[in-house]
Amino acid sequence: VEMSDSMLNLQTRLLKSQQRTTVRRSDFTIAGDAAEFDTIQRKGTMVGNVKMLITNAAHLAGKGQ
Question: What pTM was computed for the model?
């Protein structure tokens, strides 16, 4: 995860960034102009000029396709 500036609210456990944020994994890269991540529920959102690149799409199609 790349965030140049972010804030963690210790009461709500929400990590927020109003700066360009990038998340990289072995199977995808996603970037957006702002991000919010709930560290308790382990769910997040990205907004503004969001782009996603899936690097290993073969496993999405399933076997035999």
Answer: 0.76
Task: Please answer whether residues 52 and 30 qualify as being in contact, where contact means their C-beta atoms are separated by less than 8 angstroms.
Answer: yes
Number of domains the chain is built from: 1
CA distances from 31 to 11, 13, 41, 48, 62 (A): 26, 22, 21, 9, 26
User: pLDDT tens for residues 5-28?
Assistant: 999 999 999 999 999 999 999 999
Would residue 40 count as lying in a domain? yes
Which residue in the block uniquely carries the two structure tokens 């970037």?
31
Cβ neighbour number for residue 50 with a 10 Å cutoff: 14
Place of tokens 């073969």: 58
